[in-house]
Amino acid sequence: MRLVSWNVNGLRAVAKKGFDQIFAEFDADVFALQETKLQEGQIQLELPDHCDYWSYAERKGYSGTAVFSKREPLQVLHALGVDELDTEGRVVACEFPEFWFVDVYTPNAQDKLARIDHRMAWDDAFRAFCLNLQEGRVPQGGQATLPKPVVMCGDFNVAHHEIDLKNPSSNRGNAGFSDEERGKFTELLDAGFTDTFRLLHPDEVGAYSWWSYRFNARKNNAGWRIDYFLVSDQLASQVSAARIHADVFGSDHCPVSLELNV
Known about the structure:
Layout: E1 2-7, H1 11-15, H2 19-26, E2 30-34, E3 51-55, E4 65-69, E5 75-77, E6 91-95, E7 100-105, H3 116-134, E8 150-155, H4 168-171, H5 179-190, E9 193-195, H6 196-200, E10 210-211, E11 223-224, E12 227-232, E13 239-244, E14 256-260
Parallel strand pairs: 1-2, 7-8
Antiparallel strand pairs: 1-14, 2-4, 3-4, 5-6, 6-7, 8-12, 9-12, 10-11, 13-14
Helix pairs in contact: 3-5
């Protein structure tokens, strides 16, 4: 099974840059997007043989997530179940027979960590959400289910270790590389989840998924790895490939992918 995730930083813009062709070439069983930046009815995509599921932010032109799947999920959730965190369309969770698939666009802590308290609340609530799904506890509005593993993907807005960004020393303490954010990501992994890229590529350097538009960052590969596929530890042995597709353009992020033997 091939799974793909991509922060498109504005789907309407990427649609003009060959999104349909990129989508077709991946031929993913499930394709997740973050930062779609649109509302219902603002785009028409021709993606045959895929069902589509969208979460929209209340604020227009902001945030947003979407999942396209060759199979119809058993059910789809669009919120964590925490009112103050569920206004920005940051999650789409699809239940399949084998696992829960969770697409997430984690809030940015912003300059000088201005939104760090909101970010910490999100990280705690998201971790609890995924653990609850894994145990078969579905938020209000969803249908009860048996326990099953979780596959989560998206823009987590954090580089976990120094190997995950080009310039760790100068970025220490900044949004995306603060001790607080890195600590919460560690808590997520310690709760029973595996970073699939590092599982298969533990020592690979220069593997990044986001580059600033400034200073020729992408040309110089001065990037950050902030887009991930994580799986419940019980699925780790079924991971056959985890890749970063830095050759795919159209956004300041590139797609990441996972192949699972399920």
